[in-house]
Design brief:
12 helices; mainly alpha
Length: about 210
Amino acid sequence: RQLAWALACLGRTHLIRDELDEAEEALTAARRLTEAERWTTFIPFPEALLAEVWIRRGRLDLADEAFQPACALGCSGDDACWEAYSVGGVGLLRAARGDLDGSIELMEDALTRCRRQRDTHRWILAYVMDALCAIATSAKHPRAAAWITDLASLAGRSGMQEFSVHAYLDRRDLGDHEALDAARTLAIDVENPRLRYQLDGEGRSILDDLLGVT
């Protein structure tokens, strides 16, 4: 179980860095170990992240097949973190299929689930908020700016600098022409090659990056 946990966290790190081959390998191994241990309550974690890898690869049907049991198990286990990963992942899948309004509703649901328990990790809260902001920005949702402010506030208070950078990039996509310079300044100390690509990708939104759109 310790190895399954470690591999799931390693896979998540590779996913954050957009190292999809390495992420898929680690998360597949984590899921296999979890199933062998019959650790049912933990399965939603590697399974939902593996489905995110498949979204970025354009394998939406495969992602859908993984999200369904992950979502069911995550919700039945009453764990806010696993629920957020799985429900938020289904929201990303909706966005990948072009349903931005439905995606936003699911992301709001995932955010509510995050906040239901006091001990929910702040990182997963920011992770869901980050995706919500990206989708709302692309959809030109009337609450997009407010959600971005919430993400920036949470990231700033918690020292999650990469999410602060994403908030500025979302503001750039909403038309703030000074936001990109602020994002580049904040990104200097962040060791993630994917972030450099996000900063340099002209015409590419954060949502494009989340969905693997080239």
